[in-house]
Amino acid sequence: MAKQTRDEEFTGYVASRSGWLRKVAYLLCGDWHRADDLVQETITKLYVNWARARRVENRDGYARRVLVNTFLGEQRTAWWRRTVRTDGEPDTAAVGLDLDTSLDLRRALAALPPRQRAAVVLRYYCDLSIDQAAEAMDCSPGTVKSQSSRALEALRRTVVPYPSVAERTS
User: Fold this and answer.
1) Which of 83, 117, 144 is the last residue of a domain?
2) Measuring CA to CA, which of 43, 76, 115, 133 is 20 to 30 A from 6?
3) 118 burial class (0-12, 13-18, 19+ CB within 10 angstroms)?
4) Are both 79 and 102 inside the same structural domain?
5) What's the structural domain count of the chain?
């Protein structure tokens, strides 16, 4: 395949899937700026390995796995350990959702360790099976189950539902 055609195919794929990759990256890291950096690094890795990526049956799964591995790899670097995260509010609010619950859930998700956060995002946002999540995280299905279980327990402890308006006024 000619380089121009290869580049056009890659550009088309990235243009159609970059929004989705950005959403997954945000759920993994909890920061839109960092999500953009993760997506950019993922896109760069995809371009370098496009010959392999274009041959796989599930290209989105391949891209998601690159994104998750990039996120988890970043967590192990010395730079990440030296960086102090703030507990500031998210950059944007979700439209049409209960804002308080959404903010609480985002804070709780951000407080999870990276592998637990990845397991929750892959299982419940990306709607992957245990085996698919294990493949994306490059671990065993048992690890996905245990990380998901621990994450859900932590989220249950952290996120307390707010009473409805009717319950608050009665």
Assistant:
1) 83
2) 133
3) buried
4) no
5) 2
